[in-house]
Amino acid sequence: MTRPTENLAPSSIAYRTTRRVEFRDTDAAGIAHYSVFFNYMEQVEHEFLRHLGLSVFAHDEEGAISWPRVSAHCDYRGAVRFEDVIDVEMRIIRRGEKSITYGFVFSHEQRPIAEGQLTAVCCRLDPKSPPRSIAIPAWIIAKLSGEAT
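Request: output the structure for the sequence above.
Response:
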């Protein structure tokens, strides 16, 4: 079943938060290692979902639902160091029938640091079989759209 296009529009609302560069996040030069930005993106996605009363792992009457990642990308513009506080702005840049793509903009003291994207697919989890993609349930879309509390 295909959903109407108007239900698939991305969110124009930005979710903003911060992350502090911890010692474990840095390389031998004291600069945040490129790989930590993928952790930051996942952390911010989870924080955003909790903010909406959702989780990356949920249950409904049919069983468990989760969001395996199918794409991750990050472009780097500048460096940050131990104890720097990074501002992170996240938006839903695409919401398909079965997937969501989040866009992230990282900055430090208004200086661009990095831009990234994560795409996650809504999947039904069954311990006896691989994850199976499903249409994003209406109750999740309502929360992502700010239509439900």
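The chain has two helices and nine strands.
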